[in-house]
Amino acid sequence: xxxxxxxxxxxxxxxxxxxxxxxxxxxxxxxxxxxxxxxxxxxxxxxxxxxxxxxxxxxxxxxxxxxxxxxxxxxxxxxxxxxxxxxxxxxxxxxxxxxxxxxxxxxxxxxxxxxxxxxxxxxxxxxxxxxxxxxxxxxxxxxxxxxxxxxxxxxxxxxxxxxxxxxxxxxxxxxxxxxxxxxxxxxxxxxxxxxxxxxxxxxxxxxxxxxxxxxxxxxxxxxxxxxxxxxxxxxxxxxxx
Length: 241
Description:
Blueprint: H1 2-49, H2 54-62, H3 64-68, H4 72-88, H5 93-114, H6 118-125, H7 127-130, H8 134-137, H9 145-154, H10 166-180, H11 187-190, H12 195-240
């Protein structure tokens, strides 16, 4: 009787273990697919904004983890959105690329320097285009109109912001913010060996691995999803009938 109970208990433990392992594998696969899908989505933005410079964006994004503590997905997301905003103010594709990659790299450095998340740093640096001032105060930048006017006159612009076009104001704010954050620039590379940044790199590399696996899963599963959508559409027609 004791042997029978022990065997039943062992069998139950095995079943629970297999169920738990199956759930963990399913969760891992879902996470991979989500990261792979996110990378595809941001790539679509990059392709639209930088029609002739996607190779340069790819090269920058793939090296962003080691240089700035940004995953490929993060880097492409930031570059794509910064670039779209720059082009909306009339900057050329090349100018937008230079501005967006510089701000993207700075976002990684600011996150490392001020110990905030990369998304927080990205949001604060959007102020270059939006002109908002409050978010920058958290990292020691007071970008008031008076400060910008003083900076413009001291750096050869020979006019204040009230006399500038919107594009010129963006260019001024960009230069102002880059100068104000000189100390933060290159911080991730300087401190790459410390614990916090090594942990960030480890997480980014693992996320990149999962995104790669996810893209493979998406490629394999897309035909099945299309077939399922077709089947459900037919069932809806049948249900109505």
